Amino acid sequence: MDKDHLWHAMHRYNEKDAPMMATEGAGSWFTDTKGDKYLDGVSGLWCLNLGHGRKEIAQAAYEQMINLSYFPLTLSHKPAIELSAKISEHLKGPYTTFFTNSGSEANETAFKIARQYHSQNGNPGKYKFISRYRAYHGNTFGSLSATAQANRREKYDPGVPGFLHVPPPYSYRSSFGENVENSDLLAADYIDQVINFEGSKTVAGVILEPFISGGGVLIPSKEYLTKVAEICKKHDVLLIVDEVVSGFGRTGKMFGFMHSDEVQPDIVTMAKGLTSGYLPLGATAVNSRIYDKFKGDGDLNHFRHVSTYGGHPASCAVALKNIEIIEKERIVQRVAQLSETKLSKLFELTALDKVGEVRGVGFLYGIELVEDKKSKTPVSDEFMGKVIGSCKAKGLIIGRNGDTVPGYGNVLIIAPPLSSTNEDVDFVIETVKSVLYELC
Ligand code: PLP
User: Fold this and answer.
1) Ligand 1: distance of its center to the CA of 200 in Å?
2) 1-53+331-439 — its CATH code?
3) Closest CA to 310 of 104, 49, 144, 141
4) If one looks up domain 56-329 in CATH, what number appears?
5) Res 30: pLDDT
6) Is-cis flag, bond preceding 94, omega within 30?
7) What superkingdom does the record give (predicted)?
8) How far is the CA of 440 from the centre of ligand 1 (A)?
9) CATH 3.90.1150.10: which residues of the chain?
10) What single-letter DSSP state applies at residue 63?
C-alpha cells in the first residue's frame, strides 16, 4: 500500500528498499516494524526536541480540542494570545507574532510583512531579499527562492523575482581565499557590498539562520551576525532570522541569534521546536519597531494575509506546554552543558584522515568528510551511505546534508532530541566515534 499510494518527502522511487516505518517511540528512541530500536539522532526532521511520549503535551492538546476545537485568528483565542506573549518574553521583546502552520509559511509571512512595511514606511521600492548560498528556508516558492541549494531548485526554477544570494560564512571552504583569517567578516562585508551595488533603496531584507543547519552545519564566529545586524541597520534593511531549526534551545541558547552580541532581529521565524513536532505550528515574530507601522486605520496598514489553521488552538496549547517543560526542566541550560562536557568530544575526530572539519554548537553537530585533508575532496555518496548505514546497524540514526552544493553532500549531521538522557548522549558519541574510527 505504501508503494502504491504514499508519496514520500524527498521521494526517489526505489522498488527494492522500502522506507523504514516506525511503530512507536519513547524519549529519544523509536521502534520499527521489525521490532528494532533506534536512537533518533536527528530528532525526526530536527523537530522532536522533547522526544516521544510526553503525556502532558498530549493532555494539553486533548483538553484544548475538547474545549474549543477550532477558532480562526481573524478573531482571537486564549492559547494564541498567551503564546504570542510567551514568545515576546523569550525574545526579550516586544514582539508581535503572526501564526502559520510551518517554517516555510513563517518565512513567506516574513517576506510579505517586510515588503509591506517598507511600502507603508514610504519606501515601496525596497523589495529584494538577500540570503546565503547553502541555505534552506522552505519548500514554497518564496522560501524556495531564498533557498540557495542548486539541486533543490533546478526542477522548479525560475523562482520568485527579487531574491539574491551571497556566500555563507564558511571558513573551511572560504569564498575569499584559502587560510584567510577573517573569512566570516568578509562574508558579512559582502552583504554590505551587494546592498550597495543593488542600491539600498531596493533591498527589503536579509534572511539567515544563525547557524546554517541543513546546508552543512556552518558555525560562524559570533561577530558575523553582529556585523550583519549593523549592516542591515545602516541600510534600513530588515534582519529576518530563521530560527526554525535553531529556536527553542537547539544551540544551547533559547534562540540561536542570542550567541551574538547586540542583535535584536526585526523578524524572527520559528516552527519545529516551537511544538517539539507534536503538532504543526509556524510563527513570525515581528519587532514592535516594524509592527508599529501596521497600526492605524489606513488601507496600507491592512495586512491581507490569512491562514485557516495557522495558530490552531490545539497547536498553540501544545506549544505553551512545550515551552513550559523547556523552562521547568532547564532544557536550554542542559543542552549547553552536555554539549560542552560530552558532545564536544566529537571534535577529537578531527584527528582522522577523512574528517575535514567537525563543527558544532549545542545539540547541532556536523562532521565534514573528505578524501584527504589536503585536497578536501568530498567523500562519495557511497561512502556517506556506508557511514550512515554502519551507525544504523548499531542502532543510531544520523543524517547528512543532502547535496547542498552539487557533489558536496558530505556533512554528517547529528542533532539528537534536547531531552536525551546522559546515557543517550554517550551512546550517540560512542557510536559515531566507533564507526568513524573504523571507516575514516
Ligand atoms: N527554515 C529552515 C532553516 C528549515 O530547516 C526548514 C525545514 O527544514 C524550514 C525553514 C521549513 O520548515 P517547514 O518544513 O516546517 O516548512
Assistant:
1) 28
2) 3.90.1150.10
3) 104
4) 3.40.640.10
5) 98
6) yes
7) Bacteria
8) 31
9) 1-53+331-439
10) H
User: Which tens digit of pLDDT belongs to each residue from 326-357?
Assistant: 999 999 999 999 999 999 999 999 999 999 99
CA separation (Å) from 361 to 2, 122, 133, 210, 218? 37, 40, 21, 11, 10
Per-residue pLDDT, 300:
67
Given the CA of residue 140, which atom of ligand 1 is nearest to it?
16
Which of 136, 251, 307 for a ligand 1 pocket mutation test, highest count of atoms within 8 Å of Cβ? 136
Please write the tens of the pLDDT for every residue from 197-237.
999 999 999 999 999 999 999 999 999 999 999 999 999 99
Nearest CA residue ID for atom 12, ligand 1: 103
Q: Which numbered atom of ligand 1 lies nearest the CA of 139?
A: 16
3-state SS assignment for residue 379: coil
Which atom belonging to ligand 1 lies closest to the Cα atom of 135?
Answer: 3
- Neighbour order of strands in the sheet with 163-166: 95-100, 282-287, 267-270, 238-242, 203-208, 128-132, 163-166
Q: Residue 138 C-alpha to ligand 1 middle, in angstroms?
A: 5
Residues forming CATH 3.40.640.10 domain(s) in the chain: 56-329
Ligand 1 site residues (CB inside 6 A) read 45, 102-104, 107, 136-139, 209, 213-214, 242, 244-245, 271
pLDDT tens, 251-276?
999 999 999 999 999 999 999 999 99
From 43, 49, 104, the mutation candidate for ligand 1 (largest count of ligand atoms within 8 A of CB) is 104
CA of 323 to the centre of ligand 1 (A): 20
CA of 244 to the centre of ligand 1 (A): 6
Query: Residue 72: pLDDT band by 50, 70, 90 thresholds?
Result: very high
Share of the chain above pLDDT 90, in %: 91
Q: What ipTM was predicted for this assembly? A: 1.00
Is the per-residue pLDDT at 391 higher than 90? yes
Q: What mean pLDDT comes out for the span 55-77?
A: 98
Label residues 14-24 b or e (16+ Cβ within 10 Å = b). Answer: eeeeeeeeeee
| Rounded distance between C-alpha atoms, residue 347 and residue 392, angstroms | 21
